[in-house]
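Example record used in the benchmark description.
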Amino acid sequence: MSSFALQVQNISKIYSNENREIEILKNIHFEIEKGETVSIVGPSGSGKSTLLGLSAGLDNTSAGEIAIMGKTLNKLSEDEKAKLRNDHVGFIFQNFQLIPSLTALDNIMVPLELQGGKNAKSKALDLIERVGLIDRKDHYPNQLSGGEQQRIAIARAFMNNPEVLFADEPTGNLDGKTSDNVESLLFDLNTEKGTTLIIVTHDLDLAEKTNRIIRLKSGEIESDVKKASHE
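Model output (structure tokens):
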């Protein structure tokens, strides 16, 4: 069994645009051990979100291979990749991606219901209480503040006890105090559940809270720094 949650092996990503090719990522290589907390940082256009999407199997590499929990993505069908994500992966998005027609509680329940798991409601109630929004469980997303929506999104991301959690600018749409609260919640739950956390962020204060920072520049890894201990 692999000790790595994510293996990115010499990947490149090229987009074709009006008879010319644009290389977004060039020969990216790194491995993330189970239980690590990692930030991917860099200026706009450096390829951060593209790398996150490839790592989660939402898009295909132009070259190289990516493996999640030891399973190589380009050897899997789209259905197999979807099952891998549902079984092992959680997502947190900058714009929350809650389903507007569902209540806060129902939004949290979705991943486990898609998986066909049992006790979805009781698990969702535990999580919504854990994120401090039990009194908002019957509210719809448009009745919640941005910070509340992100807390619901975090609860949903942990619903299936994912082994790998990808977060794309999780505090990007939040004010300072709300960001701090969401960050604390994210790291507390992550430690509690023993999840591997991979964050794409512009927020260097948030990045400093992870135990490793991978910095991209112009589609290449500029630096990859691991701290001695998580602070």
